[in-house]
Structures are given as structure tokens and as C-alpha cells.
Specification:
It is built from 10 helices and 8 strands. The protein is about 45% helix and about 15% strand. The two termini are about 35 Å apart.
Length: about 290
Amino acid sequence: MELTNQKEDVVILVGCQTREITDEHFVLSMDELHSLTKTAGGKVVAHLSQKRPYIDPATYIGGGKVEELIALCEYHEPDLIIFNDELTAGQVRNLTKRCEVTVIDRTQLILDIFAKRAQSREGKLQVELAQLSYLLPRLMGQGLALSRLGGGIGTRGPGETKLEVDRRHIRRRMDEIKRQLSHIVRHRERYRKQRKLNQQIQLALVGYTNAGKSTLLNRLTSGETLEEDLLFATLDPTTKKLKLPSGLTVLLSDTVGFIQDLPTTLIAAFRSTLEEVKEADFLLHVV
């Protein structure tokens, strides 16, 4: 499901700084959440944050802050609220009921961006697997939130119809995706072995998302890899030939960038990048 084209989704961001999180890390994390929201097509109208020893198990933030959030919702009339940490089904249900606004978390936001950016068959399968892995334990709490969505951030992917089927069907779909991915992985392994036999030197560009890896790849190889001032503009790894001044031709790979606190649910979606990095002869860190 695509983002609405008529207008940007109006968003309120919420974060909780627990005792083990430094001020610097928290500020950077919230800034990153803002950038992720922009990438997904959202317009941030307000931030709400709280320092507390631990996450509230029922509502993520404390009762007083929930009241502040309700007041912000009444004033700004947002389309959704995005929380900076992964929420439980119960937290989503409680917050949605209290605020009467769609609630999603950081993981769901990133999954939405991944679903938009994935171009290859492997990338799309990996994103769907990550979405289903995330949604499966949340089926009980997700229906209310999705029933209020007509589109927009957090709704791209499996969709409400698939989420209404029973868990057994979803698990079967996950098993099927894993089988398809295993075939793709074996094919890629054969391709990499052939490259090694041909003694082709491989360089991999690595770094934070939106650091300029795709721009550098295009400048060096006269390529046309997508360049955008957005996080995760590149999701599928791209490899180009590069002729060095010495006359030696090498393979240069652009990889998906990393972010802070990458949810474990999403690690599989980075498998291609991790393999490109692992197999590379040299890494070029773009900062």
C-alpha cells in the first residue's frame, strides 16, 4: 500500500530515555527517527520525550506524559504517533485507545521504508519475512490500529487482509519465503565462488545510511545508482566494475547503510549487505 499522495502524514514523535541511555545517544536517536519519518513521507509537528528509569510496560511513557500526548493530539490532530522503541501489542492497544490516533513504532516505520525501497526479488522477500516476523506476535493488538488506517506510513506490506488470517497460514508463508531465499542465497554463493576463481578483487562501500556511498559509486564508475538525500535510498546491493589508474579492474559494491539500534527483526533484511561485506577483499568506509 502506497503512501498517500494528497498530503503528508502528520506525525508526533515520542521517545523515552531510560537510565542506561546517554543524553547524546538519545538526541541522536530521536534525530534519526525524525529523518526516518521524513524518508517515509511524514511531516513531524511535535516531539514528546521523557526521562524515566524504565519503560512503562502498559503505555511506554508514564501516565502524566500520556496526558500530555493526548493534549498534543487534540491540538495537532496527527495522522499517527511514532514511538522511538519497539512496542508490545498491549502498549499499542493501550496507547491507541487513549490517544485515538494510529500508533506505530520505530521498527514498523523502518519496515515501511524497506518495503518502499526494495527492488530485487530477494529484497522484497526479505522485507516481507521481516514484516511477518514482526507482526505475528502482534496480531491480537494490531487489528484495531490497522482498521483505522486508510493508507500512509506503516501500512505498506502484507496488509490488513493477510493479517486477518490465522497464525498457521502466516507461518506457512514465512516457511515458503525462507525456502525461496535459500535458493537465491545458493545461487549467489555460486556466483561469488566463480568471482574468486576468476581472481576478481572486490571492494565494498560501507557506512551510515545516507553517508554518500551511492554518490561515490556513481562518480567512480559513471553509474546510475539512485541518489537521494533520504535514509535507505539504497536497499539492494549494487556492484559495478571500476578501472583503477594502474589499469587493474576491480568490482565495487554499494551496500545498504546502517543505523543506530537496528532492530533484530530487520537483520535478515541486511543479509545481502552483510555477505557483500564479508566476501569483500577491501572495505571503504564512507563517513
